[in-house]
């Protein structure tokens, strides 16, 4: 079956991935107000960990929460990050003479604001690494650390005008059950149980020039966090490479042997490497079918039966069962929850 490309079929993230953030919000907002914010964003607070969140829902929720809390990091750190901080950060780094100078300004900026962590910039050959070092023994806020490291990547990529490749991203906390969501933000291997959290840029020139105009900065801020939080690079994670192959093939009967041949791997090697990433070829296909269904339920008026046929189900009943397994909601219920 053909896969339609407009609007784009973007990877969704799990509700479990956002749970640290949602828990923090529940401590900041009265329950009734929080329910209203989540309703406006199209995110169900009563959803189970298998619920999915789209890019649009994430961006809407981020903007609503920043407005509500008057904190650009939304209560994820020990002190509020007041509105306007991101604008001042962009103004500071875009005046730097090079990428390394910009990253040094980035770390210096956050070291003025954070009490419980210190950012440092290290270089090793063609690697540039920003480290998030704890001051004392704070309890790691998983989502806060993910957001700050992703901001590091997003700002640096914006400054040079292209998404910068990463060597790896490391986290001080143990591997979570939703680790398969991390490649949607970071185009690199994610390592857990590390001595500290960090993000390492690969194959970049420390003296690479940076140049952004004031109007470009205003556009970047207006679209925040969309331009800095979601990655478009697909080169470093095998599962996302396969997802792209499926999209390019425009058919969901694409086989593992086809993917292995396209990637110059044996089928056995491909299966082993996917297993090491905590996924499988069939799992990637199912995730893509899920995201196509979510895209079509969210945009337009295509019938549920037509959606089920487009993604290869023999009957609408089979699609209902699969969608309920993927998201803990029926297609009809999911569509009704959309704002």
Automatic annotation (TrEMBL):
Pfam families recorded: Arabinose_bd, HTH_18
Single GO term (MF): DNA-binding transcription factor activity
Gene3D superfamilies cross-referenced by the UniProt entry: Homeodomain-like
Keyword annotations of the record: DNA-binding, Transcription, Transcription regulation
Domain HTH araC/xylS-type: start-end pairs: 240-337
SUPFAM superfamilies for the chain: Homeodomain-like (SSF46689)
The protein's name in its UniProt record: AraC family transcriptional regulator
UniProt lineage: Bacteria, Pseudomonadati, Pseudomonadota, Alphaproteobacteria, Rhodobacterales
